[in-house]
Amino acid sequence: METTLLQLAQAGGGQPSALVQLVPLFLVFGIFYFLLLAPMRKRQKAHAKLLSELKRGDRVVTNGGLLGEISAVEDKVVHLKLSDNVKVRVVKSAIAGLEGDPAAAEGAAK
Questions:
Q1: Domain with 98 in it: what CATH number?
Q2: Which of 25, 75, 86, 95 maximizes the CB count within 10 A of its CB?
């Protein structure tokens, strides 16, 4: 005589413990953290490091898709040289990445 889990639950009163009910919730949160939150924080840290290390002469891509060379760096503003006679001021946070970086091209496309 083989008893199934359902029969055991019905015989034992049918109420699983509170810990057993919370296990799926913890499991979903763990999967959510490792698949979404951890990689996102890693990308944010790498982007913040990139922005802090910008220097004159770097070729960058902005979030708007502009390609330019940095001619000056201030606290929160970067001066981009787009062509010989065109210079623009751009907020550092608008820089997606370096021009040759494949992640920068992906970030600018989004």
A1: 2.30.30
A2: 95
Rounded CA separation 108/96 (Å): 6
pTM of the model: 0.66
Residue 17: predicted pLDDT: 82
In whole angstroms, what is the distance from residue 1 CA to residue 96 CA? 66
Among 34, 53, 72, residue at a domain's last position: 53
Task: Choose among 84, 54, 22, 3: nearest CA to 62.
Answer: 54
Domain total for the chain? 2
Q: How far is CA 96 from the centre of its chain?
A: 12
